[in-house]
Amino acid sequence: MTAHTLDDLLEAGVAGRHVLVRSDLNVPLEGGAVTDDGRIRASLPVITALADAGARVVVMAHLGRPKGEVTPEFSLRPVAERMAELADREVRLAGDVTGPAAREKADNLPDGGILLLENVRFDPRETAKDEEDRAALAAEMAGLTGDNGAFVNDAFGAAHRKHASVYDVAALLPGYQGGLVARELDVLSRLTGEPDRPYVVVLGGSKVSDKLAVIDNLMDRADTLLIGGGMLFTFLKAQGYDVGSSLLEEDQIPVVTEYLKRAEAGGCRIVLPTDIVMAAAFAADAEHEVRPVDGLATGTHGADALGLDIGPETRVRFGEEIRQAETVFWNGPMGVFEFEAFAAGTRTVAEALTESTGLTVVGGGDSAAAVRALGFEDSQFGHISTGGGASLEYLEGKSLPGVEALENSAASTEPGNGA
Predict the structure, then answer these.
(1) Strand-pair category, 275-279 with 306-310
(2) C-alpha span between 45 and 25 (Å, rounded)
(3) 273 preceded by a cis bond (ω within 30 of 0)
(4) Which of 272, 294, 382, 407 could form a disulfide with 360 if both were Cys (CB 3.0 to 4.6 A apart)?
(5) pLDDT tens readout for residues 106-157
(6) Active site residue 207
(7) Catalytic residue among 13, 99, 382, 389
């Protein structure tokens, strides 16, 4: 069954109706201010489209991991303020999730009004494993919409979670895919279906264990895997190289060895770095030098050295591979991009993606944060995912509870939806 979309809901009519929208507003904060509003910007088109059509929009979102407790540092107030600035309209904030404040503000929300509920994870039932607890909270959430409500899930970043605001509420209201979810599924299905070739996958980040299932699934689909970040050292160790004090997952060497054998047997190519920026310590101002992979532990700092970025020779190779590709998926920085001395690898990958004429997909999470931190614009890439973990699980071949819930919702009974 195919889920209904936002267009279906707008066609059915939303004027005067309460529409519950699950958005992904999990943005970084510093000193009580939003430091990267990418997810807010990405969420606004659905929210404003509904408001412009006369809906009374009630937005649900989470921020951080408050573990079921009301924690001021995880309040969505700064998010509400930034939303109002970007949308150039009032965004009301409820002081609770589904309590008296939320009910009062929802009841008095005018047509075209926007209400943001407080962090849904302030309520322990949001993430509860007990289905009855989640269902009870979902019923309270749905209750905010009255007798003619609807639900739109636009939070792809939470689609892999069986949470009350993502999964359970879809069983109580007619459910629709927001634009972000629809776009993510369209792009990711191209990456796992019949992508234009050559198809290059760039994987980085600290731990290879976080990417094993993705590698396993994409090895049969991609033409080339480029490996960077901290995870590369487990691959190099599997090839017999001494990686000094670099990040290493010894227990994953057997699995990585099997991937390398699969690649040699005719699967996709696995391209590993040939040189590394080795540093004396994990610090922004650490002394560092470029070393070939067969001499990582024989440089100035010997076995105490640790790799913090891919080297210049590797950057050229990776850039060439990316620029000649017709489809590129990138997830995970190439080095410690937060330190300028070790940001060149990640910057090179980002630049190469912007120069590619094919489909370029940045896989959310640290990758999305990196491109923005390094000064790139979202518009320079084909697609920047809003769901790091959800994107990876989809690429692993897993089903996403939030997506399945919409496919099984009651939207088909809505007027104008073929009922």
Answers:
(1) antiparallel
(2) 13
(3) no
(4) 382
(5) 999 999 999 999 999 999 999 999 999 999 999 999 999 999 999 999 999 8
(6) yes
(7) 389
Tens digit of each residue's pLDDT (9 = 90 or more) over 269-306:
999 999 999 999 999 999 999 999 999 999 999 999 99
Q: Give the separation between CA 97 and CA 94, rounded to whole angstroms.
A: 7
Report the pLDDT value the prediction gives residue 203, as an integer from 0 to 100: 95
Query: Quick check: is 389 catalytic?
Result: yes
Q: How far apart are CA 251 and CA 240, in angstroms?
A: 15
pTM of the model: 0.85
Cβ(133)–Cβ(125) under 8 Å? yes
Catalytic-role residue among 17, 22, 39, 372: 39
Q: Residue 345 catalytic?
A: no
Amino acid at 110: P
Mean pLDDT across 65-90:
96
The DSSP result for 126-155, as a single string, is: GG-S-HHHHHHHHHHHHHTTTTS-EEEE--
CA distances from 18 to 4, 59, 112 (A): 18, 10, 10
| pLDDT tens column, 182-225 | 999 999 889 888 899 999 999 998 888 888 888 988 888 899 99
CA-nearest of 409, 393, 408, 360 to 158 is 393
Residues 6 or more apart in contact with residue 104 via CB below 8 angstroms: none
Marked catalytic residue, from 365, 387, 388, 402? 365
Residue 90 has a pLDDT of 97
The 3-state DSSP class for residue 41 equals helix
- Domain covering 4-181+400-413 in this structure, CATH number: 3.40.50.1260
Q: Which of 92, 162, 207, 269 is catalytic?
A: 207
CATH topology of domain 197-357: Rossmann fold (3.40.50)
Q: Which of 169, 218, 178, 223 minimizes the C-alpha distance to 198?
A: 223
> Is 179 an active-site residue?
no
CA 176 to chain CA mean position, Å = 20
The backbone torsions φ and ψ at residue 349, rounded to the nearest 5 degrees and listed phi first, read: -60, -45
3 state SS of 276: strand
Domains of the chain, by residue range, sit at 4-181+400-413, 197-357
Please list, residue by residue across 179-217, b when 16 or more beta carbons sit within 10 angstroms of its beta carbon and e when fewer do.
Answer: bbbbbbbebbebbeeebeebbbbbbbbbebebbbebbeb
Average pLDDT of the chain, as a whole number: 93
